Amino acid sequence: MFFERPGGGERAILVHLEGQDPEAREDPQEFLELARSAGAETVAFISVTRHQPTAKYLIGSGKVDELHDLVQAEKAELVIFNHTLTPSQERNLERAFECRVLDRTGLILDIFAQRARTHEGKLQVELAQLEHMSTRLVRGWTHLERQKGGIGLRGPGETQLETDRRLLRVRIRQIKQRLEKVRSQREQARRGRKRADIPVVSLVGYTNAGKSTLFNSLTTSEVYAADQLFATLDPTLRRLELDDLGPVVLADTVGFIRHLPHKLVEAFRATLEESANADLLLHVIDAHEPERMAQIEQVLAVLGEIGAEGLPMLEVYNKVDLLENVEPHIQRDADGKPERVWLSAREGSGVELLEQAVAELLGDDLFVGTLCLPQRFGRLRAQFFALGAVQTEDHNEAGDILLAVRLPRVELNRLVSREGWQPSEFLEQHTLQ
């Protein structure tokens, strides 16, 4: 009798392993949130204590029998493990339970597949899914005969399997070529922003820390935000005007998670490069989360994987509305530089403090002074006003325009150079003759 692979379902039994190496241990509460985010109806949560995982099932054969009975009793259609399973373990467990089995990586991939909205996001998810599926392809054809020697004994199984593997390789190659084009387009856009001297600020952090809510609060956008894991998948960029700095580009990115599958890091590299090339990282942290220190470590680990560990960073402790006796405020280091900002993105309290801290960190080289422009430089005057850099305007006895301005020095240099002046000479005099 051949084992027919059953279709997927919503009623799920969750299996969590305890007693493993602390480094490999997963959070059971996070596991429940992942299942909820995927749309599963959890009918049972089983915690298994096992110090030495088995090669065949990961768990012991006695626990396998117990879970088989539970699957039948609850009419479960899916068993999800909070750990990575090998292809053979998945196949053996499916045969034992007579229902579909999914591991942690497959669960995260499924959530990503549901959340992807843009063409690029769908391509990235498909690439990760195909690479994950390529090692598990054989189980889909276990109902077909194997190829055997002898007349009349040659079955179609291996032929179909090889055909599918070839099609998978072709599709993976096509997706990688398309994503390479996306990466080059992003790089071109980044070069354009760099030429315009517009700083890029990227939101990073653990999933469900409140990045999208903060993004919406800062930019008055309507990016999808929800109290669930991986609510944001597709990167979003918006222009943001800061009073003391001028324009910046704010990027909202996909959230990180403990033991983020390496295939996902690779597939989303084009997206994550927005963070790797930022001028400032805003590390959004859930201040109400008991496991926040472990989450901070995981975010720093993923930033290391994408080459963004050395970038300037400002910690943003979000959700202070859930804490007692904590008001929005800025924490500074010994030199007086902003180090942490405590705020509530949902309530909107403390957001102006974050804008102030970002302007301070990015505006180190800020020009503040009065410029004297003869009347013939009316176009230059208009450009200063267009940038929002003019604080006051006056005229002297000769009729020259006196502008009190505040703007990044690079922006000032760029505008002055257009008029054929040397910025260094101009900055010494603070006057344009």
TrEMBL record:
- Coiled-coil regions listed: 165-192
Q: Which residues bind GTP per the record? A: 205-212, 230-234, 252-255, 318-321, 344-346
The record's subcellular location field reads: Cytoplasm
Domain Hflx-type G: from-to ranges = 199-366
Cofactors demanded by this protein: Mg(2+)
What highest taxon heads this organism's lineage?
Answer: Bacteria
Q: Does the keyword GTP-binding apply?
A: yes
Which Gene Ontology cellular component terms are annotated?
cytoplasm
Keyword Ion transport among UniProt keywords: no
Keywords of the record, alphabetical order, are: Coiled coil, Cytoplasm, GTP-binding, Magnesium, Metal-binding, Nucleotide-binding
Any one Gene Ontology MF annotation carried by this entry is: GTPase activity
Which positions bind Mg(2+)?
S212, T232
Role description: GTPase that associates with the 50S ribosomal subunit and may have a role during protein synthesis or ribosome biogenesis.
Q: Which family does it belong to?
A: Belongs to the TRAFAC class OBG-HflX-like GTPase superfamily. HflX GTPase family.
Subunit description: Monomer. Associates with the 50S ribosomal subunit.
Which NCBIfam families does this chain map to? Answer: GTP_HflX (TIGR03156), PRK11058.1 (NF008280)
What is the protein named? GTPase HflX
